[in-house]
Amino acid sequence: MKTAIAFMVISTIAIWAMGPIMATSLKGSAFYYMAVQFYLHFQFNGWFLFGALALLFKVLEDQNLMIDPKKQNYFLGLLVLSSLLTYALALAWAAPETSIFLANSLGVIVQLSALVVLVFLLRPHYSSLERFFSKAAFRLLIIAGVSFAGKVCIQALVVVPFVAEAAYTIRNYVIGFIHLVLLGAISFSLLALAGKFQLLQTQSNYARWGMIILVLGFIFSEILLFLQGTMFWATLGFMPYYYEFLFGASFLIPLGVLIFLLSQVKELNSPKI
Length: 273
Hints:
Number of helices: 11
Mean pLDDT: 85
Shape: globular
Number of strands: 0
Structural class: mainly alpha
Helix content: over 70%
Order of helices and strands: HHHHHHHHHHH
Radius of gyration: 20 Å
Distance between the termini: 37 Å
Low-confidence stretches: none
Strand content: under 5%
């Protein structure tokens, strides 16, 4: 959690820099976009990611499922290093230098190593976590874990330079990746943990249906974004009715959230025995 807060503070360097940038001729320059990417990168891959992991490790701690501190620190070190190095991909569009691609490649390899270490850390506690979470919350945690693994694997692909170029130039890939991190890895893990800490209830039929619709909206929109991005990459143009399908998939997300919120209101207003 201390690391998460440190990354949150580091990300604000970009906000402090935005004043001088906007007040000078640097407005609209590469420095402007690099500052924006700096803020977003260390929010997503620092503050949000490490905060969610801190809460997960807190659950393990509360249930006396202790993890070897040396292994935990090793995982933490790998993830911190990868978060710092993978900022290089955000710089590659402005300065496509070999050294920047090498830094990013090293970062994604370190991040992939961190994922392997995390799997080995959590694997002995899988059945225990399944018992401690409600069925719905545990499924959300699994989706969050798969999304995090998908994020790491997708970033691993950018070791190849022409894949890296597509990753930061095709907008559908960029949006799909951001959704994978924020909606998939972060939001679903926080929902699962909120259920575990009894801040939200996930047991009622309304809550379950809200979560199902939310997850379906997330999955369908991810498929459409990455599929259309791949079609752009292959110079195949637009898929038929792409925007209509994307609207339909995206509509499921606020609909699921609304149903889930109504389930919380219903729970608050239900008589307690």
